[in-house]
Amino acid sequence: MKHLRRITFGLALAASTAGFGSTASAANICFAFQDLETEFWVASHKAIVETLTEMGHSVIERNANEDVNRQLEQVRDCVAQGVDGIILIPQDGESAVTIVKEATSNDVPIVVFNRPPANNDNGVIVVADNAAIAETAAAFVLEQAIAAAPADAKLHAVVIVGDLGDTNAIQRKKGFEAAVANFPDRFDVTEVASDWDAATALANLEAAVTAKPKIDAMFTSSDFLFPTIRSVLEPRGMWKKTGEEGHIPLAGLDGDATACKLIKEGYVDATGVQDLYFEAEASVNAIVKAIEAGETDPNEVIADPGFALTSANLAEREMDMWGCKLLAEGFLDN
Amino acid sequence: MSSSLVPRRELKDKAVDLLLSDQFVLYLSVFYVLLLAPFLPMLVTPANLVNVLSNMWPLLIVAIGQTFVLAIGGIDLSQGAAIALTSVLGAVLITGAADPATFANTPIWGWLLTDAGGPLAGVDHGVVLAIAAMLVAAVIIGLINGMAVAMFAMPAFIVTLVAMMIFSAFALWLTQSGNVANLPDDFIRLGRGDIVSVYFGAKEEAKIARRAIYSLVTYPMVIALFVALAAHVLLNRTVFGSQVLAIGMNRKAAEISGVRVRRIIIAVFVLSAVCAMIGGLLFAARLEAGRPTLGGGTFLLDVIGAAVIGGTSLFGGKAKVIWTFFGVMFYVIMASSLSAMNLSAFQIDMVKGGIILCAALLDVLRTRLKRERVR
Predict the structure, then answer these.
(1) Is-contact B332 B56, C-beta < 8 A?
(2) Contact A104, A123 (CB under 8 A)
């Protein structure tokens, strides 16, 4: 089944590639990514590499292990090796600007996957509407908190923010703030820094929960922090399912398999979903198209509208979420 | 019988000469490239050689600072933190704009950093003033390290480990992990500016592709070579350098001989932090942002590894800047070749670790061979 799904995805991509002209001749494509720490990056990496390989292209993989300087050097190496195009997952928005400039100034087309540069002046940028997705997911749990509280009671919401050098983290924070702004004077907000690091998030969340244990709603900027949240809340008796006394309405963003499982179990109420397969397909198509057309500096933003999977729409939209698909394939059983 | 023994002994002597030669790692680098070139032809392409050089300069400067500390038998684990802190400080002072979404919650927002940038943004000689401020910060870090080691006889390992924790956390706290971009062109040029570029091709080409133009002389190259030359003179041609090596060989003997050991130790740690700051300046300029995470990860492995591969002893008393130069060169060539083999970052780090271990074993062997020769 898993193999069949992969083939279907590959065929779909091959078909869509054929749509803009003849199938690309085998190209050398450099895939430079910052790490493979979370489910999202693992699944993205797999989708991109398998698709490119199935299309007959050779892929030069470069893992920077979260080191921006190393990633810059790796991209320079790729350029020196004469690659035809680059797909980049940068560490943050600022380094993305520098690396994209490095590629385009050397006439190598580049596509930035999911994590956009601080400006959109160069390259093809495939990115989810993080602010809108975050706002939808956060609004769902804030509404639940308000519904469960006495009228006009002041409530306490916790937001776990990512590395604010990353545009996605900023947009997700803005989305959460927009959701809170819809309920003026109802929420006191505690901001917990994670720097996209589970250990940092754990330490800061421990401190925040100890300082102010009454929490009415919580939003994490990435689903990969749900296990961290659980490890803080569970020992304090605050990790409860929907309907149980003391349940904290909880939302995240990414749409990974863990989030899907936790929504089904009732511990999590919503997650903003980035359409990983759409983004991977758009990235692969964009780089192949640029190589075919001989474009050295294609410049375009491809938006992934995304959506929020909630406990309310789980039955209808479950299989639209990449994490639920992976869960169904036994991803978490490995 | 005796006639066959003589050439064998001569051969052995020549092998020992080679092993003990200052240029041993240079020969090793050339041999390594020649060995791999038939399988990885990209290694000897002009584009790759330019890359290797470009990656070498900032690392060389930081490794030179580490060489001085290793020479006194110490180690400086705080170089990465010095890079992070000074790069953030310099960038905050000269940035032309800062996003409130990223920096509004930082302790420097409003009085040092605003949405219009830092206090030296657009100021005449602002870049020079920012570099001066970075230098002062580096000197302070070096003084703290040096005084703790020299005055309180604390182990350099612990002192610089603590300094690493404190200063890298301080850098993160200052910007709440945000990267400070929008740096002026004058600053960025220091990290990636060409002074002389070359093109190999037909003269009549109307438009030359950028990837066909190779940087030959760059600002980082000039800065690194200047630092290397100055450090070489200081370590290997002055009384100060002799005293540094004397402390590394035997601190008590150096004290008895009248060497002002404490002052030298403090000066060495200051030098190390200043070198880290200059290397960090080049890293920040090439990445076009001051970053509180610069110098993190396995960066120290690269720095210490390059110095040790060059032949600088971890036990002190044995160091030359030219060794570090060749060590950095070998290290960068090795990283480039491993990358060309499509190995993952983890595999590359494992190989690097193995090579550093081999270099440390080689150091033991060279020391023994030298001792045997003296006898």
Answers:
(1) yes
(2) yes
Nearest to A84 by CA among A59, A102, A117: A59
Interface test with B, best of A29, A31, A70 (most B CBs within 10 A): A70
Q: Give the pair of three-digit tokens for residue A17.
A: 């590639």
Q: A207 CB contacts (<8 Å, ≥6 apart)? A: none
Let me know how long chain B is: 375
User: What DSSP line would sit under B135-197, residue for residue?
Assistant: HHHHHHHHHHHHHHHHHS---HHHHHHHHHHHHHHHHHHHHTT--B----HHHHHHHH-EEEE
3-state secondary structure of A115: coil
Question: CA-CA distance, B168 to A169, in Å (whole number)?
Answer: 22
Helix A39-54 to helix A276-293 angle, to the nearest 10 degrees? Answer: 40
Whether ipTM exceeds 0.90? no
Give me the residues paired with residue A158 across strands. Answer: A190, A218
Contact criterion met (CB < 8 Å) for A62 and B339: yes
Q: Are B184 and B97 in contact (CB under 8 A)?
A: no
B101, amino acid identity: A
pLDDT tens for chain B, 375 residues long, are 455 556 777 888 888 888 888 888 999 899 999 999 999 888 898 888 988 999 999 999 999 999 999 999 999 999 999 999 999 999 999 999 998 978 998 999 999 999 999 999 999 999 999 999 999 999 999 999 999 999 999 999 999 999 999 999 999 899 988 899 999 999 999 998 888 888 877 766 667 777 778 888 999 999 999 999 999 999 999 999 999 999 999 999 999 999 999 999 999 999 999 999 999 999 999 999 999 989 988 899 899 999 999 999 888 999 999 999 999 999 999 988 888 887 876 788 888 889 888 888 888 888 888 788 776
**How far away is chain B from the Cα of A174, in angstroms, using its nearest Cα?**
8
Across the interface, which of A62, A108, A165 has its CB nearest the CB of B177? A165
Taking an 8 Å cut-off on Cβ atoms, the answer to whether A80 and B45 are in contact is yes
Record the tokens describing residue B4, joined without a space: 């066959």
Q: What's the order of all strands across the beta sheet hosting A155-161? A: A187-193, A155-161, A217-220, A250-254, A270-273, A307-310
- Residues of B with a Cβ under 8 Å from any A Cβ are 42, 45, 47-48, 50-51, 54-55, 99, 101-102, 105, 172, 176-179, 181, 209-211, 283, 286-289, 291, 293-294, 296-299, 336, 339-340, 342, 344-346, 349
Measured CA to CA, the distance from residue A277 to residue A113 in angstroms comes to: 11
- Chain B closest CA to A244's CA: distance in Å? 36
pTM of the predicted model over 0.90:
no
Q: Answer yes or no: do B177 and A62 touch at CB < 8 A.
A: no
Q: How many CB pairs below 8 A link A and B?
A: 102
